[in-house]
């Protein structure tokens, strides 16, 4: 049996409407309270907000790139503009952890003399044993008959290597060794005109780029004096691949083979497939390449010469009364650390590194104070 209330709505409908009104009032009060508190927060604390619409609007307003937009935002006086860039930077930083900071190295202070005009080469300031060396330029026969190609450094025995360290008149292996008659050359072939030029050099600044591994850095002409420009040989050794690349970049040798101060010398038939190993030839054997030179300076291809070479010679050799000077590594001074770093960077086969390192130790290499 159903019970109805005649002349009005059922009781349950009125109760539902009352509950709905109460909920609406409470919801309105909640929204109002949140809005009021938000306005108070903005009024007293005024935080920096990220207005992404501003960025998109500016992109669409003109045909400008992202770099110019960022520059405009940073230079703007509008706080919201700056806060957008700041907010984006913070977001990117949170997604990508900050990289490990690198050490910054600054050049050391060198007290060069003011000018090269009054420089005079000292007479016999070095006290060392005088002796003469001749070099093996052709192998008489291969030690192993199954090896049909000559080696650039020749095939010296262990005994010959040990004897080559004595300061006495002798004939030694020192690169540029050709095979017996009828065999091809061992590499690092140069044009005869280039050889004639190199034979006239008394003071040499040299460098090299092989395998198109770097770009050409010219000496700073404003730092090089007139005397050095006329009397010092600036020689850059390149292979054909590198010469083609730098020519495509606008560095084309003139009719005399010069690019700026560099006299470009093309090397053919590289002796090694490893370009780093080939680069050691002009670095360590400059006395073979420049037979008449009294002084030579080697510049790594990643460095630029910013001083007059005669000032360098005066400071490091003449003033210090030294026979040679070599730069110290900016970060490491221990061979043990260098071995580990070469392995980390996978510069060479690790087994080959270990074999070479053991050979150094068998020659008497020991740790010194700066090795931990």
Task: Give structural notes.
The protein is of the alpha/beta class and 372 residues long. The protein folds into 3 domains: 10-52; 133-327, no CATH class; 329-372, no CATH class. The protein has 13 helices and 7 strands. It has helices spanning 11-45, 52-61, 66-75, 79-95, 158-163, 192-199, 226-231, 240-248, 275-284, 286-289, 309-318, 335-344, 350-362, and strands at 133-135, 170-172, 203-209, 232-239, 258-259, 262-267, 295-298. The strands form 2 sheets. Strands 5-6-4-3-7 form a 5-stranded mixed sheet. Strands 1-2 form a two-stranded parallel ribbon. β3 (203-209), α7 (226-231) and β4 form a beta-alpha-beta unit. α3 crosses α4 (79-95). The longest helix has 35 residues, at 11-45. The chain is elongated, with a radius of gyration of 37 Å. The model is unreliable at 1-9 and 46-97 (pLDDT under 50). The chain crosses the membrane at residues 27-45. Residues 133-370 form the TOD1/MUCI70 glycosyltransferase-like domain. Pfam families: TOD1_MUCI70.
């Amino acid at each position: 049996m159903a019970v109805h209330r005649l002349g009005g709505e059922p009781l349950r409908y009125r109760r539902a409407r009352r509950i709905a009104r109460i909920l609406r009032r409470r919801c309105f009060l909640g929204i109002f309270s949140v809005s009021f508190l938000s306005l108070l927060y903005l009024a007293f604390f005024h935080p920096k907000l990220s207005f992404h619409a501003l960025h998109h609007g500016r992109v669409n307003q003109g045909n400008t790139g992202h770099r110019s937009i960022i520059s405009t935002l940073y230079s703007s006086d509008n706080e919201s503009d700056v806060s957008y860039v700041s907010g984006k930077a913070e977001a990117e930083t949170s997604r990508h952890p900050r990289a490990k900071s690198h050490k910054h190295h600054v050049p050391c202070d060198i007290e060069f003399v003011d000018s090269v005009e009054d420089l005079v080469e000292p007479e016999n300031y070095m006290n060392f044993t005088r002796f003469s060396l001749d070099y093996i330029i052709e192998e008489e026969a291969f030690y192993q008959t199954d090896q049909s190609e000559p080696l650039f450094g020749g095939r010296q025995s262990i005994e010959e290597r040990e004897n080559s360290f004595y300061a006495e008149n002798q004939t030694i292996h020192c690169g540029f060794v050709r095979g017996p008659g009828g065999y091809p050359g061992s590499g690092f072939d140069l044009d005869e005109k280039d050889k004639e030029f190199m034979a006239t050099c008394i003071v040499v600044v040299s460098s090299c780029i092989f395998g198109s591994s770097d770009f050409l850095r010219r000496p700073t002409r404003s730092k090089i004096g007139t005397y050095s420009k006329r009397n010092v040989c600036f020689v850059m050794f390149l292979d054909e691949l590198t010469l083609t690349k730098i020519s495509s970049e606008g560095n084309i040798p003139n009719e005399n083979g010069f690019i700026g101060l560099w006299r470009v010398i093309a090397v053919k038939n590289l002796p090694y497939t490893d370009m780093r190993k080939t680069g050691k030839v002009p670095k360590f054997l400059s006395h073979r390449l420049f037979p008449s030179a009294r002084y030579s300076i080697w510049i790594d291809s990643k460095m630029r010469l910013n001083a007059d070479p005669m000032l360098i010679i005066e400071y490091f050799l003449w003033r210090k009364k030294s026979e040679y000077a070599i730069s110290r590594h900016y970060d490491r001074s221990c061979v043990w650390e260098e071995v580990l770093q070469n392995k980390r960077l996978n510069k060479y086969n690790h087994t080959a590194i270990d074999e070479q390192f053991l050979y150094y130790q068998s020659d008497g290499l020991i740790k010194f104070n700066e090795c931990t």
